[in-house]
Amino acid sequence: MQLLNSSFSDCNFSNDEQKIISGFIMLIHMLGNLESDKIVQYSSLWLSHKLNQKTQNGTTKLYDFYTENIITNSCYINNIDDDSDDNINKSDIGKKINMMNMDIKDISNFYDAFKSLCNMYSERDATTECKTCLENAGELFEKYEKLKNALDINKEHSYYELLSSLSNDYKNFENKYNYNSIHINDYIFNVN
Length: 192
Hints:
This is Plasmodium variant antigen protein Cir/Yir/Bir. The chain is 65% helix and 0% strand.
C-alpha cells in the first residue's frame, strides 16, 4: 500500500477495487521496458488474478471490467497517456484488453504459470546451476500443461496467445541465460 501511495498520491484508495486498479496501473509503469502487448498482457493476468480473489466482483469478462471501472478511474485517466508515441497508452491497453476479452476466472488461471516464469527470472543465480530455477521451470511446465489440457485453445484465440507468450518467454529465458541444465524439450511447450 505504501508503494501505491508514494507512486500515485493523487489516486483514490477508498476500496479494494480502487487499490487493484492502481496496482494494475503501477504494473504497467513497472513493466514499461517490455513490448506494449506484453505489458498489457502480463498486467492483465495480475489484474484478473486479483479480481478473481474478490468474490463480490460481479463482472465476468475482462473487457467489461475495463470499460465499467478502469477507463473512468481518475488514477487511470491521470497516469496513463493518450499519446500514441509512448510505449504504452490508453489506446494500446484498450485494444489488447478487448482482444483478451475472456472470463476473468479463465485469465486468472494463467497467473500461476506467469508467476513461475517471473520467479525463474527473479531467483536466477548466476554462480550456480540454480536448483530454484529448475523447480520453477518444473512448476511452469505443470501449470502450462494443466492450462493447455483444461482450455479449448481452438475455441478461444486469446488462450492460444497467452500460452504462446508463456512458451516464448520461457524459451527467451533459456536463451538469455544459456540454461541448458533446465532445458525442457520443445515438444512440451508446443501449443498445438
